[in-house]
Design brief:
257 residues, alpha+beta, outer membrane lipoprotein receptor (LolB), chain A, 12-stranded mixed beta sheet, 5 helices, 12 strands, 20% helix, 30% strand, globular
């Protein structure tokens, strides 16, 4: 199996997806200083910006309270799926153009990955222990019961303002939450000022998060994640044993935190 290619080219695209889907946020104390020269949890410039931050944080936290469907659109990666934090189940498909299609299933602490369209990949599902992927691992769809890491994503926010009813805009600094991540380190100062916009519905739930990732690389453009169908049932079937194999350690290490 071509695990080296998966651990480099393919996983690089999964990392790009993570920028749009989770904001590359790992759980941390937002008042702690960011590593690698990242900004600290500075006080808001005004009560207006403080209110906007509180509203956006509350909207993201609502995503951990019930099941949700997600859809991501970008110039390089497109994905869709559904997650239920209560049962810790999820099903996400990511289409990555020439790099193939990644489908991820979450069933409690079990994660299953199947890749089609990439030469050298196995035909079977690859099973992994989700607990070994880490809270910010690229296949951990629901860190601490948080669909897509949206709640943690707000910890990367260094500036935000309310631009209209249910609308927000601001700046993300990825070094605040993943200072030790080599892919983030490679971006340098670009990772410290990434523009975003967000929308919240009339029930105070986050329904759209758009990140201008072209500041990281011109080919990326804007990554838009939308959330919908709150509370709808999520059913995930475990792949049959005959169609499952254990994932190689190299893959687990590359996808972990």
């Amino acid at each position: 199996m071509n695990t080296r290619r998966l651990a480099t080219t393919g996983v690089a695209l999964v990392a790009a997806l993570a920028l749009g889907l989770t904001g590359c946020a790992a759980e941390r104390d937002t008042d702690a200083p960011g590593g690698n020269g990242g900004t600290t949890g500075a006080a808001p410039a005004s009560s207006a910006s403080s209110d906007a931050r509180a509203e956006l944080t509350a909207a993201a936290q609502k995503l951990s309270q019930q099941s949700v469907k997600m859809q991501l659109k970008s110039s390089v990666v497109n994905g869709s799926g559904a997650m239920d934090p209560a049962t810790k189940t999820g099903d996400m498909t990511m289409k990555m153009g020439a790099e193939g299609t990644f489908r991820i299933l979450m069933l409690g602490n079990d994660a299953y990955l199947k890749i089609t369209g990439m030469e050298g990949m196995p035909k079977k599902w690859m099973h992994m222990d989700a607990t070994k992927l880490g809270k910010s691992g690229q296949l951990n769809l629901m860190p601490d019961g948080d669909p897509g890491g949206a709640k943690q994503m707000t910890q990367s926010v260094v500036d935000v303002e309310k631009t209209g009813p249910g609308s927000y805009s601001g700046i993300l600094d990825y070094t605040r939450t993943k200072a030790e991540d080599k892919s983030i380190q490679a971006l340098g100062d670009k990772a410290k000022a990434v523009p975003f916009t967000a929308r919240v519905d009339d029930q105070g739930r986050l329904v759209e998060f758009a990140i201008d990732t072209q500041v990281l690389h011109e080919s990326l453009g804007t990554m838009i994640t939308t959330y919908s169908d709150f509370g709808a049932p999520v059913t995930v079937q475990k792949p049959p044993a005959s169609d499952t194999q254990e994932a190689p350690q190299e893959l687990i290490e590359s996808l972990g935190s």
